[in-house]
Every structure is written in structure tokens, then in C-alpha cells.
Amino acid sequence: MQLFSTFECNQYVEMAISTLEKHGILKENIFAVPLDNRTEDRKFFDTIHRSDGISFIDIGIAMATAFSVIGASIGFKLTWGPIYWGLISAFIGFILGFAIRLFIELILKKRKRVRKGRHSEIILIIDCEEAKAELVENILWEHSALGVAKI
Fold it and tell me: Which residues lie below 8 Å from residue 23, measured CB to CB, with a gap of 6+?
């Protein structure tokens, strides 16, 4: 049976490996793989083949609707009339809403992503008998594994 687990790169990985060795798991049956973390930033805009589900125009469309209603109402009193002022204010509302969404995604959410800081940096693969699988899984969870899977 194989057990896979992920850890942050800290002393708990070493402690888990030494505890497994004390419980009869041979060094040859323990395999640790360090992961390379992403160095460049994620792509910001979606392509036709990849989408993250975030829309940049949702706030812009809502604000364009609200601004166009207000602009058309005020346009009855202005010289160009309600249609022109409704279109002009819809454009202004869309640009403003798009700028707000861009600010939220670029500035605020980037700070949250950086602050989280939990990265899975080491994968630990353990080969053992089925009788020891429960013991090995408990040892991995006790030593702060981020995730454990049995195959």
C-alpha cells in the first residue's frame, strides 16, 4: 500500500520521517519530493482555453445601468437630451465599475493571496503493508500533514 502526504517545508517532515523509521518503515520505502513553487505571477486575464470564473465586467454592467438611468433622467433638463446623456453616463458608469473590479482583483485579492502563505512544498510517499497503513496515516496527521491519501 502507498500513502501520499503533503507537508510544508519545516521540521515536522523530518520528525515524521524519523517516527516512521522508529515504527519499522525502512528508509528505502520513504520517498520525499520537494516541489518548486511558482515564481512568476498568475495570468491575470482569461483566455479561451482557461478561465478562473472571475468576471471583470459584472460591476461595470451594473454601474452602467444605474448611471444610464440617472443620466437619462437628468438629460431631460440638459441640452443634448436623455438619450445622449444616458449613453454618456452608461459609458462613465461602465468604466468606473471596471476600474473598481480591476482594483479589487489587482490590489486587494493579491494581498490576501500573499498573506495566506500555506504552500504544499514536500510530497512524502511511503510504501508499507496494509497492516501498518493506519499507523502511518496517524503519524503523518500528528506531524502536521496538509493532506494524506491512501492507494
Answer: 132, 135, 136, 139
- What pLDDT digit, counting tens, does each position of 23-54 carry? 988 999 999 998 876 666 666 565 666 666 67
Q: What is the pLDDT of residues 68-82, one digit of tens each?
A: 999 999 999 999 999
Burial, 120: exposed, middle or buried (Cβ in 10 Å; 0-12, 13-18, 19+)?
middle
Q: Which helix (H) or strand (E) holds 92?
A: helix 82-103
Distance CA 112, CA 138 (A): 32
Question: What is the residue extent of each domain of the chain?
Answer: 1-35+120-151, 54-118
Q: Residue 66: which of 34, 96, 22, 24 has the closest Cα? A: 96
Please determine, looking at this structure, whether the domain spanning 1-35+120-151 carries the CATH number 3.20.20.10. no
At 115, list the grid cell.
498573506
